[in-house]
Amino acid sequence: MSKTVTVNDVGPRDGLQNQPNILTPDQRLELIKALLQAGISHIEVGSFVSTRAVPAMIGTDKVLSALNETPGHFTVLVPNMKGYQLARDAGAQHVSMVLYATDAMAMANANMSRADAEQVMQQILRQAVDDGIRATATIAVAWECPFDGPVEIGTVTAIAGKFIHTGIEQLVLADTIGAANPQQVRELTTKLVNEHGASRLVCHFHDTRAMGLANVFAALESGIRSFDASIGGLGGCPFAPGASGNVATEDVVMMLEQMGYNTGIKLQGLMRASKLATDLTNNAPGGRAKAWLEKHLQKTLEHA
Ligand code: COA
Ligand code: ZN
After folding, report:
1. Is 73 helix (H, G, I), strand (E, B) or coil?
2. E strand segments, the chain
């Protein structure tokens, strides 16, 4: 099985959308560039959503156009057709759409039912195919919903079965509020990998209950080789009560590299990006291995 793992940093979107400290597009770009310098090639750089609902994402068009000439794989989240059109007009090459495992989460996040969100996603996908824009879909609350509680595994496998072969590039299983445990992650990911293969599947974990890394490991054992993570553990969904930060990119990369996987990402650079995230937001906790990583990397520098 492949020893190469892709880590997609969603900090500039999932991480920043909920911050009390709203960053300017230039500050967001500074963070994105720090991530690129650390060797991260996949970054979710923002979203095209209601500016009233998420003021922190105002200016995603500026962020995208500033990255126009920059090599890298940049995605933007779009909740509806209007968001898609804005993204396309701003030059997006890859959009990320949202499906829901529960009606309550669809309503809270996008003001539509689960079924309507599926239809919207299909419309966006058709348009994206016509426009030559790549598209990925995320299943939000794939394990547990803050409103409706635990999600039946069959609900998620049914959504995955319906959409995974419709032309989307990847399907992301999101533990939006960080409630899943490794056993539940293994159960769902094993089933989906057996049914569809691992190549299109991505996992997205929040670290609310300190099970983020264990969940990455469980999915890795099922064969998944693509993960979302957020620099400095930034994050939390404003529409999902109880959601705290994503599993920190530096923790995920540290664990993967120590286990002999290749991410192409440099921890030294990541720690610089993580410090920048903390300085800019005044609020990034840093990964759980922060103290050890800082000490270890300092020693490495001294002996270089
Ligand atoms: N981008 C920017 N503005 C948008 C928009 C988008 N994607 N979609 C709708 N709007 C605007 C409309 O033009 C309208 O503006 P107006 O009042 O000035 O005329 C206003 O928002 C309301 O439009 P409506 O279609 O009624 O949307 P809504 O109130 O039902 O809200 C969403 C739906 C999806 C736009 C809103 O809930 C949203 O943006 N949520 C953000 C979800 C998110 O980012 N979650 C975190 C990531 S999963
Ligand atoms: Zn998330």
Report:
1. strand
2. 6-9, 42-47, 73-77, 94-100, 134-140, 144-145, 149-150, 170-175, 201-205, 226-229
Q: How far is CA 100 from CA 81, 140, 154, in A?
A: 17, 5, 13
Please identify every residue annotated as catalytic.
Answer: 237
Ligand 2 centroid to residue 14 C-alpha, Å: 6
pLDDT score of 25: 98
Yes or no: say if 280 and 31 are a contact pair by the CB < 8 Å rule. yes
Atom in ligand 1 nearest the alpha carbon of residue 82? 7
Is residue 87 exposed (0-12), middle (13-18) or buried (19+ Cβ within 10 Å)? buried
If you measure from the C-alpha of residue 304 to the centroid of ligand 2, how many angstroms do you get, rounded to a whole number?
Answer: 37
**Collapsing DSSP states into helix, strand and coil, what is residue 94?**
strand
Domain 6-302 has CATH 3.30.379.10: no
Q: What pTM value is reported for the model?
A: 0.96
Residue nearest to atom 32 of ligand 1 (CA): 110
What element of type H or E holds 129? Answer: helix 114-131
Query: Which residues lie below 8 Å from residue 103, measured CB to CB, with a gap of 6+?
Result: 113, 114, 148
What is the amino acid identity at position 240? A
Which residue carries 């990925």 as its tokens? 136
| Residues in the chain, pLDDT under 70 | 236, 304
By CB atoms closer than 10 A (0-12, 13-18, 19+), residue 240 is buried
What pLDDT, on the 0 to 100 scale, is given for residue 284?
A: 83
Q: Ligand 2 centre from 285 Cα, in Å?
A: 16
d(Cα 104, Cα 272) in Å, to the nearest integer? Answer: 39
Instruction: Report domain extents, the chain.
Output: 6-302
| Residue 157 near residue 138, CB atoms below 8 Å | no
Please state, in angstroms and rounded to a whole number, the distance separating the CA atoms of residues 133 and 125.
9
The answer to whether 267 and 47 have CB atoms below 8 angstroms apart is no
